[in-house]
Prior knowledge:
Blueprint: H1 2-15, H2 17-40, E1 47-53, E2 57-64, H3 77-100, H4 107-130, E3 133-135
Antiparallel strand pairs: 1-2, 2-3
Helix pairs in contact: 2-4, 3-4
Amino acid sequence: MKDKIINFLKWFYRSYIWVAILVFVFDISSKWIVQNIANANNIPEEGLIATIIPNFFNIIIVHNLGAAFSLGANGDLIWRIIWILVSIIMSIGLSIYYYKTFKNNNVIYKISLMLMIGGAVGNLIDRVMYGYVIDF
């Protein structure tokens, strides 16, 4: 039994799935923190949360109804459904691609795919729960 656990942990470490899990947890946690700071300070849907370095680095919350570059950001239900479906398809597609090409890919490529999968799932959760992606 101990050997099975050790073998699983070795596989889990070498699979880099833990990277996707960490990205997902960080994504959801950071968005939750920023959203709660905005709510506590009565900041509207989009606005300045904090100035970290004056005139250089600010945290501004944005509720993105669309995709990249606000594509389809008019807030219609059909666009919301389309982006949810795109997120699901991309997450599943990247996961299948990762599984099928695992042995042929180098470490950087594997980590890159896991970063994309973790971020895609985090955005999918936002779209389903809130109807938009929380960006900051």
